[in-house]
Amino acid sequence: MAADMSDSSAISIRDLSFSYDAQVVLEDVNLEVLSLDSICVVGPNGGGKSTLIKLIVGLLNPDSGEVRVFGEKPESARLRIGYVPQYARYDPQFPISVFEVVCMGRLSDSWIGRYTRDDREKVMEALSIIGLADIADRPFSSISGGQRQRVLIARALASEGDILILDEPTANIDHESEVQFFDLLTELNKRMTILMVTHEVGFASTFFKRIACVNKQVVIHPTSALTGDLIRDMYGGDLQIIRHDHFCGVEGHQHD
Ligand SMILES: Nc1ncnc2c1ncn2[C@@H]1O[C@H](COP(=O)(O)OP(=O)(O)OP(=O)(O)O)[C@@H](O)[C@H]1O
What we know:
Elements: E1 9-20, E2 23-34, E3 38-42, H1 49-57, E4 64-69, E5 81-84, H2 98-103, H3 117-129, H4 145-158, E6 163-167, H5 175-188, E7 193-197, H6 201-204, E8 210-215, E9 217-222, H7 228-235
Parallel strand pairs: 3-7, 3-8, 5-6, 6-7
Antiparallel strand pairs: 1-2, 1-4, 8-9
The structure holds adenosine-5'-triphosphate.
């Protein structure tokens, strides 16, 4: 489905709260993400970033409040979201090729057990975009950590979603691969809304328009509006410094 390129809402979260058993992880969360926005999601360990992402993709349900993705419940909008989880659950010994991993992005509710020619074309297209078409037949277990990460992004691309959500995708890749990775994200952001969890705000903020700070609550800022000191004060010392050398949107930050 093609993305609506106007200022339409891609993700809308209203008065959301979520607990694991008795532990309140997110409370009174409100978040509005517009189509073609790019947001980095930061915050201390255990602050609720991955939980927030799982609520957006419909893997968890809120205790109260609501999540809407293009105006629909997350489970109805699942095919519009490409999701790269924090840990890819692949047994390294499992004999699966790069091509087959990306094919999983074509699974849908109507999948009947084999891939169509269209599926295969979309898979090769996604692998070409991330520059790994030439290793399509290699076993997934035999490629590097950075290549695996890109293959998982190709899987998300093959699903042809309008939103790309990545949970700490650069944790295992070197700086050079990270530069290439952000070039790729810049290209994808022309047609996809991007949300990415990261602990490396310094370099990342050159790409993202806005930053969402998650620590039980969610506060959103233009990336240019924060200083490293402020981040450290609010969220502890586990974040790197944000750069201030590019223009961001008009939404100001909303702390007391
Ligand atoms: N399945 C679960 N059952 C119970 N508690 C959980 C579960 N998953 C996460 N938690 C707890 O919820 C809190 C938020 O976890 P979450 O993974 O969302 O944080 P995070 O901000 O992504 O952390 P990190 O930066 O360490 O990845 C933590 O205290 C965590 O221990």
